[in-house]
Amino acid sequence: MRKQIGGRIAIAVAALSAATLLGSGAAAAAPVPVRALDTWALSDDIGRCGIVRIPMTVGLTSGWPGAEAYILLSPEFYGPDLTHQVTQCLIAVTVHWENLDTGVTGSRTVYPMDSRENRVYQTSGNAASVASGLGRVRFWLSTETPHVSAPPIEAVISL
After folding, report:
1. pLDDT at 128
2. Among candidates 155, 125, 121, which has minimal Cα distance to 140?
3. What start and end residues bound the annotated signal peptide (predicted)?
4. Could you say which residues of the chain have pLDDT below 70?
5. Given this model, what pLDDT does residue 67 score?
6. pLDDT attached to residue 89
7. Which of 32, 66, 83, 124 is deepest in the core (most CB within 10 A)?
8. Can you give the pTM of this predicted structure?
9. Which of 91, 96, 63 is nearest to 78 (CA)?
């Protein structure tokens, strides 16, 4: 059992290292929606949930007072054998932002789950609305577990 877990961790670390090489670079500010490169993380239960790929898309909110940006997270969990598994696994993901025009910063932690079988949930349940303010805004993700963050993306948030 101990050797199995050690092997799983070694595979996960190798996958995260590969993601580091693929996830380097920066993007200029663009009108929304903007899609980031993927953040990769170890789940908090690697034996059951493995590693997770966390795509992020930034868009505009509509009808959310005090919130301008809409962050859609669509995590996919890959089991210890690195095959995709639709699971009931969750991961704490913190969305960070910095308004490059006003200097306002903030963060919000959300708990998205793998929801590829339920497209309605994937487009609404894994979202975070944030009060980033208007203008050029930089967004990035982090997790409480070991992870490789995608480079920050910059989006132009406007009415």
Report:
1. 82
2. 155
3. 1-29
4. 1-28, 30-32, 62-67, 82-87, 115-125
5. 66
6. 80
7. 32
8. 0.74
9. 91
Q: Is the dihedral of CA 80, 55, 110, 14 positive or negative?
A: positive
Q: Are 89 and 43 in contact (CB under 8 A)?
A: yes
Question: Any idea where the domains of the chain sit in the sequence?
Answer: 34-157
Q: Which three-class secondary structure string do you get for the chain? A: CHHHHHHHHHHHHHHHHHHHHHCCCCCCCEECCEECCCEEEECCCHHHHCEEEECEEEEECCCCCCCCEEEEECCEEECCCCCECCCCCECCEEEEEEECCCCCEEEEEECCECCCCCHHHHHHCCEEEECCCCEEEEEEEEECCCEECCCCEEEEECC
| Cβ atoms of 132 and 106 closer than 8 Å | yes
Q: What is the phi-psi region of residue 66: left when phi exceeds 0, alpha when psi lies from -120 to 50, beta otherwise? A: left
The answer to whether 93 and 75 have CB atoms below 8 angstroms apart is: yes
- According to DSSP, the residues that pair with 107 across neighbouring strands are 96
CB 150 within 8 A of CB 38: yes
What are the φ/ψ torsions at residue 144 (nearest 5 degrees)? -80, -10
Phi first, then psi: what are they for 119, rounded to 5°?
A: -65, -30
Q: Six-digit token pair at 44?
A: 């908090």
